[in-house]
Amino acid sequence: MLVIDIFRLATRMFRTNRSRTLLTILGISVGIGAILFLVSLGYGLQELILNKITTSEALLSLDVTTGDVATLQLDDESAKKIKSIPGVEKISPLISLQAQISLDNISSELAANFVKRDYFQLDGTLLKKGEFFSDNISDVNKIIITSSALKLFALNEDEAFNEAIAFTFFTEKDSGGEDIVRDFVVPEKEYKIIGIIEEESSNYVYLPFANSEELEEVKFSKIKVKVDREENLDITREAIIEQGFLVSALSDIIEQANQIFKIVQIILACFGIVALAVSAIGMFNTMTIALLERTQEIGIMKALGATSLDIWNMFLAESVVIGFMGGLGGIILGLLGGRIFNYAINILAGALGGEKIDLFYTPFWFIFLIISFSTFVGFITGFYPAQRAAKINVLEALRYK
């Protein structure tokens, strides 16, 4: 029997038993759609959270600190040694001091971080409003502040860009004995906010690195190290650790987060598989009923010369077509359900003053996988009925009523 003939016979159920076939396909579609909906939700949450905390350059960066080792120092000399390590593309130091910030008649203490422009890229810093400062001398009096620090001065985010701010920087240095000498520096110039970072728990500001030149010799609090490619990440880390420094990487946190999200996606997929299992049972029932209804027809076909393999192929093709159509329907239901759910969430977020987000993300490969999976379910579900149909005795089939 030709393939086209098998396909024509396998698709007869859309004409002879239309309602039952469509309900069976709908059952498979619901199961596949549930899997696609839940797994896409897991991927969407993963993309949403990871994009909020990192950038591509940040994933290739290392944080170098001295830890609790008092004898180690991060200074220009150690920065040059780190820069000379093969695989290191660039470095960007950070100096962190306690500072007092004054606005009108209000003063408060917070952390003042002196950085260069490329530090933000290596750190994965994202702005809620405004822009980053550059390393040009014209931007030396511009700062970036957290939204939490703004609340100390009862400022809203729109008012903050027009205010003039004064600083007092507190420095510490070793006197040569056991005592630490504390001093302070009051710059003559005033600063203006040009960017705001979304941060509700920490109070700090970023200032251009050139401002640190007004202070006495201050050691680096941290150095950001960017490697040229991912393969050099561990090699560079080991080389820096050999120099005695403490090294951490944002990629470690991302990897742990990805592992957690994989577990979440598996759990969500299991809920969808339960629905698919129920649908598969319904599909098996449909194929078994089709076998009983067409027993006499099978006997006639065998009497006219159809082989057991032809009968087997016909029933299996029918089951595979139902599985494939169920997969297509499931993709439509899953994507449409995700769009509707996301739209409803964004309407609610807009009403409550929140920002719009996209909770669903469906990789193309997963769509291909899910439709292949539904087709495979159709194959497995129809295998036993096809086996039974192929083994039917011709004489018994002709007498069957």
Helix share bin: 40-55%
Overall 3D shape: elongated
Radius of gyration: 33 Å
Strand order of the largest sheet: 2-3-9-5-8-6
Strand percentage, roughly?
Answer: 15-25%
Going by helix content, strand content and strand pairing, the class is alpha+beta
**Count of DSSP helices?**
12
Low-confidence stretches: none
Number of domains: 2
Q: How many DSSP E strands? A: 11
What does it look like?
The protein contains 12 helices and 11 strands. By secondary structure, the chain is an alpha+beta fold. It has a 6-stranded mixed β-barrel with strand order 2-3-9-5-8-6. Strand 6 and strand 7 form a beta hairpin. Helix 10 (308-351) runs antiparallel to helix 11 (364-390). The mean pLDDT is 79.
Write the layout of secondary structure elements.
Layout (H helix, E strand, L loop, with lengths): L2 H8 L2 H4 L1 H36 L7 E5 L10 H8 L4 E16 L2 E10 L1 H7 L5 E2 L11 E5 H5 L12 E11 L5 E6 L5 E7 L6 E5 L13 E6 L5 H10 L3 E4 H44 L1 H9 L4 H44 L12 H27 L3 H6 L2
Parallel strand pairs: 3-9, 5-8
Antiparallel strand pairs: 1-10, 1-11, 2-3, 2-6, 2-10, 4-8, 5-9, 6-7, 6-8
In short, what is this structure?
This protein has 401 residues and is an alpha+beta fold. The chain has helices at residues 3-10, 13-16, 18-53, 76-83, 117-123, 147-151, 233-242, 250-293, 295-303, 308-351, 364-390, 394-399, and strands spanning 61-65, 88-103, 106-115, 129-130, 142-146, 164-174, 180-185, 191-197, 204-208, 222-227, 246-249.
